[in-house]
Design goal:
This protein has about 150 residues and is an alpha+beta fold. It has six helices and four strands; from the N terminus they run αββααββααα. The strands form two sheets. A two-stranded antiparallel sheet has the order 1-2. The chain has a two-stranded antiparallel ribbon with strand order 3-4. The radius of gyration is 27 Å and the shape is elongated.
Length: about 150
């Protein structure tokens, strides 16, 4: 049987707080701290006025509401593109069909590889880094619209 030696180290939050105050010149009050991944995150806030007692209970609720999302949202920049129609696609999603895609994919002689290349080019020209799924989404929605199978228009 193999034995395991475990060493435990406790480091008071007040020491970490003092270290952060000294390094970054922080004068605000420590309101919250958390372990996120492999780091300890300290939250400092400026508390003013007579509501100091009420502010002690509130920071955990408000700090979690203001924290950013950890995952990246997949959003495409479509600013400046005219919306031709709003349709419901074959997957039941409500989506917009944009004029640059309608103009580019309107030619029935294009094969699917050329269509994908055109959609990728249009998305990149507007500052996006499109994934294969995004290219497929915009291409299929536009093709459904052009075929008249888009549902409500």
């Amino acid at each position: 049987m193999m034995e395991e030696l475990v060493m435990q180290v406790k480091w008071p939050i007040s020491d970490l707080e003092a270290l952060a105050r000294k390094k970054f010149g922080i004068t605000h009050r420590l309101t919250d701290f958390r372990v996120e991944g492999d780091a300890v995150v300290l939250y400092f806030a400026e508390v003013s006025g007579p509501a100091e007692g009420a502010a002690k209970a509130a920071p955990k609720e408000s700090s979690s509401a203001r924290r950013r999302r950890k995952t990246k949202r997949n959003r495409m920049r479509t600013r400046g593109w005219a919306v031709v129609a709003h349709i419901q696609n074959s997957k039941g999603q409500r989506c917009a069909v944009y004029k640059p895609f309608v103009d580019a994919l309107g030619d029935p002689k294009l094969n699917s590889k050329e269509r994908r290349a055109k959609v990728r080019e249009i998305l990149k020209s507007n500052g996006n880094e499109p994934s294969q799924g995004s290219v497929e989404y915009y291409m299929s929605n536009t093709m459904e619209y052009l075929a008249g199978k888009g549902g409500k228009q």
